Amino acid sequence: xxxxxxxxxxxxxxxxxxxxxxxxxxxxxxxxxxxxxxxxxxxxxxxxxxxxxxxxxxxxxxxxxxxxxxxxxxxxxxxxxxxxxxxxxxxxxxxxxxxxxxxxxxxxxxxxxxxxxxxxxxxxxxxxxxxxxxxxxxxxxxxxxxxxxxxxxxxxxxxxxxxxxxxxxxxxxxxxxxxxxxxxxxxxxxxxxxxxxxxxxxxxxxxxxxx
Length: 211
Prior knowledge:
Blueprint lengths: L5 H22 L2 H9 L6 H19 L2 H4 L2 H24 L5 H28 L6 H30 L2 H25 L8 H4 L8
Helix pairs in contact: 1-6, 1-7, 1-8, 3-6, 5-6, 5-8, 6-7, 7-8
């Protein structure tokens, strides 16, 4: 993985880390933001989760087929970039105090319409990029590393930022997430693998088939 396929490993690491950071930065602090900054009642938080969940479901359903028609590289790059731009725009509106609990939820739902498709493509990319004998190991390695980068760091950092009650500080955190997603999209556009409509053995030649 880190020898003959080191470029692919770099792509997978970028994709997995960025999406893990985004999901953990927002999803695990979702209720805290609504309560802290918008005064949403704790008992009503579940209702705000519904549109967020809907955006997560619809993203892969609507955009998924395009990954095989338009192609892996352009669609992965596009969904990562769209997530980044939508998050940056939402962060700007949050900074200007132009949102309420409902419109904030709507904005996040749109962000994750694209981000859920992007995250799904990250797992797909890991499973497709390496020889058959390495695929299970690759998924385990990049899931662990990505979760370590995004799943451990993001909740801690954003928990501190939300606890401080500073809009500019939280906006800065959101912009970091947006930059990570945008950078991952650029990495995919440059070094990603066009795996659509190709047998996996042609995407990555099995080790057993080599001399």
